[in-house]
Design a protein that fits this description.
Number of helices: 19
Strand content: under 5%
Order of helices and strands: HHHHEEHHHHHHHHHHHHHHH
Radius of gyration: 25 Å
Distance between the termini: 17 Å
Structural class: mainly alpha
Strand order of the largest sheet: 1-2
Number of strands: 2
Largest sheet: 2 strands, antiparallel
Length: 465
């Protein structure tokens, strides 16, 4: 969800060729193809803010609130376009999050207790302190139910800010931030599942459970064809949606099932394809030499069979989780997340709204919880853990970098907006929360950037591997 080391090296190399490339080096992490990138989301947010506050703002909002109907015979089902985006498209984003979380636990920064304690403790502090700060302002008020707004961070924006420094920060900074984000996202999703689910239909939940078990069964059988998984995944979504639990949970649940190891190791691949490669070469050469059309066709068919075998063996070396993320991320980055911003960012900037936000406990709690609570909770919890010997600072990471990680964690944009839509039924409260999230995200992003800039090595200091 940020620039890979290889791509970071490519971006750094371009800076040597032209001044324009040096400028692009700073913004490219926000538009990286193959990674969940925050650039398209940022542009869509700015467009939504401009249009909502223009003369056509009311008509623009009505466009997203207009019902989109699915019908077959006498059966009909209609929901506003914005809700279709939230319920049908956003689960794809959470599917990627679920996959990334599993990869971190299986083979990433959380794969061993020793490496996991630091971000786990930090994530707990980054959850408890912001919620406590929010409730300090809102306990006993009508906005008390919105405490979940400060529970999660925006992974795309936070990792993009780290990637802006390319090789100037140690690789452990990104690893800690990714681990922290993974755990933080799990907390956010648990908040959605537990705190903002009004009622549960057990029949639909059972349907989702049966489909989920079907996916597990196919995985145990090592079933390769993707169609059954897709169909069962859709049934899981239908079951979760019909049960009353928000369907984003279906995305995470399916993502957690995806295998993070390939079916065939590279060493086994080399053993299995060597003979078919030799047979392909022989069949291809025979087809080129012969003047007999029938024999040439037979040899070409033989060569194609060998190619098919080699192709399948090559596909078996690919991780299912990595392949899915690779396929989905461009669609999520450039279509799903921008559509979410275009349909959900509805802040009308006005003197009255700003005046109300300055005094509203809801807005003050959101800003304080994200801007102060996230870095304070992460820093205090990790510092305490290191003092008692339960965790240690990762190699190359200092406390200023830790504060920077906590700072960018205050960018709660995507999931915070999402939870705000679930938490508040009053449009005024939703708008106040959205304005506070926007302000907090900007302030947190700037603060995190400054901390990383102060902690990073000078330009040209290659500290990343």
């Amino acid at each position: 969800m940020a620039l890979t080391p290889r791509l970071s090296g490519q971006v750094a190399a371009r800076a040597h060729h032209s001044p324009a490339a040096a400028i692009l080096q700073k913004i490219e992490p926000f538009f990286a193809i193959g990674q969940i990138s925050g650039g398209p989301l940022l542009i869509a947010t700015l467009i939504a803010l401009v249009v909502v506050n223009s003369p056509i703002g009311a008509e623009y909002i009505r466009l997203w609130d207009r019902g989109v109907r699915i019908s077959y015979g006498s059966w009909s089902f209609a929901r506003p376009a914005a809700e279709w985006i939230n319920d049908a498209l956003m689960p794809l984003f959470f599917l990627i999050i679920g996959t990334e979380v599993k990869r971190e636990f299986v083979k990433g920064s959380l794969s061993s207790l020793r490496t996991a304690v630091f971000p786990i403790v930090g994530a707990i502090g980054g959850l408890v302190v912001p919620i406590a700060i929010y409730l300090a302002f809102n306990l006993g008020t009508p906005s008390q139910h919105g405490w979940g707004v400060v529970a999660a961070m925006d992974t795309a924006f936070s990792l993009a800010i780290v990637a802006m420094f390319t090789t100037r920060l140690p690789v452990a900074v990104r690893a800690v931030l990714l681990a922290f984000a993974a755990i933080d996202d799990v907390f956010g999703l648990l908040v959605i599942a537990v705190a903002y689910t009004a009622s549960i239909d057990l029949w639909f939940l059972g349907l989702a459970g049966v489909a989920y078990a079907g996916i597990l069964g196919l995985l145990r059988l090592r079933w390769v064809a993707p169609i059954p998984y897709v169909l069962l995944g859709i049934v899981v979504w239908i079951g979760v949606f019909g049960s009353g639990v928000h369907p984003t949970i279906a995305g995470v649940a399916v993502g957690l099932l995806l295998p993070t190891r390939s079916r065939l190791s590279e060493g086994r691949f080399a053993e299995r394809v060597q003979k078919p490669i030799d047979q392909f070469k022989a069949a291809h050469a025979a087809a080129e030499r012969t003047d007999d059309p029938a024999e040439a066709e037979e040899q070409r068919d033989s060569a194609q069979r060998r190619l098919g075998y080699i192709h399948e063996m090559a596909a078996a070396t690919d991780e299912a989780a990595e392949r899915l993320v690779r396929v989905l991320t461009p669609w999520v980055s450039y279509i799903v997340l921008p559509l979410f911003a275009l349909s959900n960012v509805r802040i009308h900037f006005s003197a009255d709204l700003i005046a109300e936000a300055v005094q509203a406990p809801l807005a003050i709690g959101v800003v304080a919880g994200l801007v102060i609570g996230k870095p304070l909770g992460f820093l205090a919890a990790t510092w305490a853990a290191t003092r008692v010997g339960a965790a240690s600072l990762p190699e190359g990471v200092n406390w200023r970098m830790v504060l920077g990680i906590g700072g960018v964690a205050g960018i709660g944009f995507t999931i915070s907006l999402f939870i705000a839509e679930l938490a508040f039924t009053d449009p005024v409260q939703t708008e106040l929360a959205a304005l506070a999230i926007l302000v907090a995200s900007v302030v947190s992003g700037v603060f995190g950037y400054v901390m990383f800039w102060k902690a990073a090595g000078p330009v040209g200091d290659d500290r990343q591997v």
